[in-house]
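Problem 3 from the worked examples.
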Amino acid sequence: MGFNVEGCVALVTGANRGIGRTIVDQLLAAGAQKVYAAVRQIDSADPLVDAHGSKVAPVRIDLTDAESIKAAADEASDVHLVVNNAGVLKTADPLDPTAIDALQTEMEVNVYGLLRMAQAFAPVLKANGGGAFVQLNSIASMRSFPAFATYCASKAAAYSITQALKVVLADQGTQVLSVHPGPIDTDMGEEAGLKDIAEPPTLVGEGIIAALSTGDYHLFPDSMAKDLEAKYASFAQSVIEG
């Protein structure tokens, strides 16, 4: 199975900045017909509309708001590709007094938001021939970093859900891709103190387009991620993808 983005209609959450905005740019450069730029505040997508005109259609999605996601699925009923990129990171180690609140926030967005997106858009993808569903996870889904322990826990849960989606969505012909970046040069990466080791977000968008075309399930787009991939590959191939 492989998915070609050329001519497709896509939807990208968190499309107004960082990795999300870069993915929108790269999908259109690769020949996507239209991209729904899913954002919490519609006017935050104005720069994308200015850059790409009618090829970008802003749509409101808040991953904590199930009704906004259902309404977006009704509006974007022609979608072939969903890229669930939006997420939230809090800095909290397990003993931090804010850790429970941080984890609750991250689970609400990073995990329950993923479930809401999958449940709302799976029927849309099925109706349009299957298509593809891309989930932005992280190397943090596979290894805990103490300073971001709650974020890592939420991404581990999201990765687990993504594995289940791979199986259940295969029945309707929907390809699933789990993306695991390391430090990427975005506002989130800078806020986490990772700017000095971060790599360009273009690696993620380019990797997604290539991995979709070859039907891969995992994507490790940057240097740190590829180092992890080399150690994880045999387990992934025999257990996760087997």
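Problem 4, a separate protein:
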Amino acid sequence: MKLPRFYPIFDNAAWLRRALPLGVKLVQIRIKDQAPARLLGELALARELCREHGATLVVNDHWREAIQLGCDFIHLGQEDLDTADLPAIRRAGIRLGVSTHDHAELDRALALRPDYIALGPVWPTILKQMKWDQQGLERVTEWRKLTGSIPLVAIGGVTPERATEAFAAGADVASAVTDITLNADPEGRIREWLRVAA
């Protein structure tokens, strides 16, 4: 399965209103610490916006809500895998992306036959405190060999310039968060990303 090469991550549907009209075709919504009703509303809006623009929505973590809303893709971190009902997710026909940071996590992810495997942080990131050092491009190349035909997503400190390096090292997809959301001109930055990832 071929995925778009640019994969931004946003924490609310308002960002999707800005990004999707520019041509973004794969987007993750990652909402933390939200009241259940508000969470469901945001996810439903994100789903509708993606359908309207012919884009794929990936829901981070909230697999129950993704099933309830008929979303077609979720992303789970390693901690999420401990509690998620993977058979229910598969029965619902939902595609799955999984985060990895080391070989043990990669082995666990490969056993699930996911629709993509993410590796990070490839470069230092300010998004969240992580117990892993930056992985570097050599790890991207190593993961490329180990993941076979499963799409590989590079995340963590990625910029349009670094995305080119990540693609050359073997990543199929490059993901960005703060490179867009903290940019003085997010729309301009998204256009730059789309050119690099075309």
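Solution to problem 4. The mean pLDDT is 95. The first strand starts at residue 6 and ends at 10.
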